[in-house]
Amino acid sequence: MMKLPGDFVLHKLTKGQHLSLGDGLPVDLSLQDEGLTIFDQQKDLIYQSSPSDRAWRAGNGMIFISLDSEESADTLVLRSMDTEAAAASENVLIHLQGKFDQRTEEGSSSLYWHYYSQIPHQQNMLQDMIRTGTYYASILGNAVDFQDKVVMDVGAGSGILSLFAAQAGAKKVYAVEASNMAASANVLKDANPALGARIEVIQSKVEDLDLGANSVDVLISEPMGTLLVNERMLETYLHARDRFLKPGGRMFPQTGRIHVAAFTDDVLHTEMMNKATFWLQTSFFGVDLTSLYEPAMDGYFSQVVVDAIDPRCLASPPITHNVDFGTALESDLHDIVIPLHFAMGVPGNIHGVACWFDVLFDGSSSQRWLSTAPGVPTTHWFQLRCVLRQPLTVYPGADVHGELRLIAHKRQSYDIHLRLSVPSLAAGVPDHVVTGKFDLKEPYYRQLTQPYWQSQAAGGTLPPDSPAL
Ligand SMILES: C[S@@+](CC[C@H](N)C(=O)[O-])C[C@H]1O[C@@H](n2cnc3c(N)ncnc32)[C@H](O)[C@@H]1O
After folding, report:
1. What is the enclosing helix (H) or strand (E) of 151?
2. Is residue 377 packed enough to be buried (19+ CB in 10 Å), middle (13-18) or exposed (0-12)?
3. 277 CA to middle of ligand 1, Å?
């Protein structure tokens, strides 16, 4: 490695060699016949150039990479330079991004950070007493797991969970928060000096952090969105586990479960059908709107409905899908397939599936579930329903089969594909099959606040995965 005048550091990398960049750039580069490959610390391929690419730029303009000569692709030159110089270079073709930015559209993440930087939205989560009280009891009730330990709070927000970990005896807590809420977390920890002295707030995306492997004993986080996985923050939690957690380290929470049950709700179905009737007007101020009736119906039925549901609408016991946060891979969350099988007891119309989740805090002293099930005190996550435009007609004893498939997209959420079928009992008549496609990012918040008798949390602000995001 040669030191050049100014900020320039020059590496020469020949074909087949590997180069690992430590400080702030957790990447490993190598030049192969097929071009430049860049791996992250988990050995996941994060960039593969095409053989004809001549130059790259990585992370905040700090690294500039170019092939040594126009003729030969044998040698790579790596320069570190300031952002301005890198930006000014005509050779900058690609901005290499961290793992979060790779999987997230910029428009989505900037709204997301803006949302979480606002105190009312953090307040809304803190005021969800089922949520916050369960975290408090799970952390303080397992103080033995925190005593003198190094803890990371993944997505710390206001820093409330970091303060709980400090109360439980942690010797050091890294409160990692990407949004500008980090400044408020600093204010809060400084105003509670007995606890705050052991907390370090770091404003960074967890994915861009360079604390070193095995640097923490315990991870705490509240990464759950609607249907557990909305917002795709669980991937950040697993990422923190792989990068920073010591082998055998504890995670609070440790396990998550998604539950899916068939439901019957004529009132909701009729409400959804009626929403589009506006577009049936043949003379709306002299304009025929009817050509948009079908697209409007499709739009309404692609929204997921979020509200506190009456458990009596459930038509089957739930199917459960487990996610062990200790072992699941980030990639397991990119395409989640939940096979469905409901044995129907009574005849009726199945209008779709109702979903909810719970997470387990599996401490040394106590185990505790945080549940968002229908019928238990309501949280700000409520429950979620995928409503089918065409209901499924079932007879007593029918075996309903199907699948709920969640495919991650770059707007920090999922496309949901639902398929349900019931065998026909008549010879020559095909099985009845119904399908629906939904965007988890487009919820219809049928209920905006918790029922007042279940929580004092009715703060009036939308949950974090509100349509505003
Ligand atoms: C659901 S809130 C929980 C906040 C706080 N831990 C609590 O329990 O009240 C999630 C927080 O994580 C932050 N966050 C989400 N993804 C992150 C990431 N990749 N890196 C750092 N912070 C992130 C958000 O900005 C948000 O403040």
Report:
1. strand 150-154
2. middle
3. 40
185-233 pLDDT, tens digit each: 999 999 999 999 999 999 999 998 888 889 999 999 999 999 999 999 9
Query: Using a 6 Å cutoff on CB, does residue 165 contact ligand 1?
Result: no
In a mutational test of the pocket of ligand 1, which residue from 135, 138, 161, 179 has the highest number of ligand atoms less than 8 Å from its CB? 179
Burial status of residue 82 (CB atoms within 10 A of its CB: 0-12, 13-18, 19 or more) = middle
How far, in Å, is the centroid of ligand 1 from the Cα of 293?
Answer: 39
Please tell me if the CB atom of residue 464 comes closer than 6 angstroms to any atom of ligand 1: yes
Ligand 1 in reach of 177 Cβ (< 6 A): yes
Please give the distance, rounded to the nearest whole angstrom, from the Cα atom of residue 117 to the centre of ligand 1. Answer: 10
Residues 102, 88: Cα–Cα separation, whole Å: 23
Of the candidates 444, 278, 277, the one whose C-alpha atom is nearest the C-alpha of residue 352 is 444
Q: Which helix (H) or strand (E) holds 298?
A: helix 293-300
Q: How many CA atoms lie within 13 A of 383 on its CB side?
A: 26
Is pTM beyond 0.90 here? no
Distance (Å, whole) CA 381 – CA 24: 36
